[in-house]
Amino acid sequence: MKNIVGIGLLILMLFSTWHFLLNDVDGGLIFYSSLILTIFLVIIGFNIFLENRDPIQTITWLVIFCAFPFIGFIFYFLFGRNFRKDRIFRKKYFLDKHTFVKISGEAGYNERIMEMGEHPQQLITLANRLGNSPVSFTTETRVLRNGEETFSNIIEELKKARHHIHLEYYIVRDDRIGGLLKDILIQKVKEGVKVRFLYDAVGSWKLARSYIDELKNAGAEMVAFGPLHLPLLNNKFNFRNHRKIIVIDGSVGFIGGLNIGDEYLGQDQKFGSWRDTHLIIKGEAVRTLQLIFLQDWYYSTNNSFLSDEYLMTGMPNHHGYGGVQLIGGGPDSEWTIIKSIFFKMITSAEKSVWIASPYFVPDDNILQALKVAALSGLDVRLLVPKNPDKRIVFHASRTYFPELLASGVRIFQYNEGFMHSKIIIVDDQMASIGTTNIDMRSFHLNFEVNAFLYRTESAQQLVNDYMEDIKVSKEVEIDEFSKRNFGLKLLESTCRLLSPLL
Length: 502
What we know:
Elements: H1 2-24, H2 28-50, H3 55-67, H4 69-80, H5 85-88, H6 90-104, H7 110-115, H8 118-131, E1 139-145, H9 146-160, E2 164-169, H10 176-190, E3 194-200, H11 209-218, E4 221-225, E5 245-248, E6 252-256, E7 274-275, E8 277-283, H12 286-301, H13 308-311, E9 323-329, H14 337-347, E10 352-356, E11 360-361, H15 364-375, E12 379-385, H16 391-398, H17 401-407, E13 410-414, E14 418-419, E15 423-426, E16 430-434, E17 438-439, H18 440-444, E18 448-454, H19 457-471, E19 473-475, H20 478-481, H21 486-498
Helix pairs in contact: 1-2, 1-3, 2-3, 3-4, 6-12, 8-14, 9-10, 10-11, 14-15, 16-21
């Protein structure tokens, strides 16, 4: 019913505008341009209605079309089109599923799963069924705190490479750290190491052509994910590869929140100190990370390297206690994989749910899960940046604070620079670390990858780091927060209106 009312409102307002122009403008370009725009917007509005999107999202689009027709038209073509994403990525989805199911059956770990207890067992089972990815109990992980520790470990491991280096990043900068990594990769190519580099065309749109050419001329393969020839006509523009992956010789891997750029080392004057979290992985679970990269590479190039040469290369086993599960999610999946796992983590928590997210724009399911957990007496905490890097998202996120605070969620704003970590910790025993933000884009539009840790030393390290971050953060008090001036509240509410589109 809401969608029908919205369509009627759109038609009424647009044709009222057309009628005004017809009577007050003596023909000419303005009249015909307005007529064409009106027809296009009515068709688009009807198409949105038939797509059966969330009613709030549908009405948001229709209001934008009515209030700002030309801007809304452009904005829709850039960010709003669904184009039946299951059709766009159908080939990729079925190939990924077939490959992951094949390797999942090779691991005999049922007894270890049973030993983990009912709570982790349910989460492992859900992640396996949705992501077709097994859990490994022979994988070593270590948390890397901030850029210096992350890039020093990446550089160290890159220099050890003997067979291949695979990189997949959303943002790549041609700056000091980007140049240093480029030089190392060129040197490794000269040593006979195969280098494949997948970068997102939108996230890395500022990357200099000379950077790409230097790597290609040296013999490295560098490919753009989702290249943009005509953005307004590109039906994949809105689906971006937000993953940050490095795989070295099939035995060492990296994932987390850091892209390649000097700002992630805290060297950008605008942001200053940059708080982030990355993970180094050694052992069996690297094979899953390798598969995610190889499938993305195949989708982008039609070149397949699914062979033992890349999937069984020297994987040292770490016989410690705990499980590691790598999960990739994206618009090619039939489920909202990572969001569903997050939801399960929150709803099955027994003591605590701690979240760190730089961009917090939850959908109704996650928002309700957090409020119910807090109302049930659990220790629910949310750590967000005090200062924004994306202002619309920042102001939209603050509109969720009052209802979260009222339900008992404790919210902390990180004070020492910008906080970019993407962490969920449940009951001090299970944790997620990776590229996924708590927002609509990560849940529904981006290709993401996360590591889920079950009773590992790394999970405990994330607990310790979270507590240290809380010490340099200021807790949001509901009485003080409610005193924001009217102008700021109006800005935040306007940004929230756009949140279904972000």
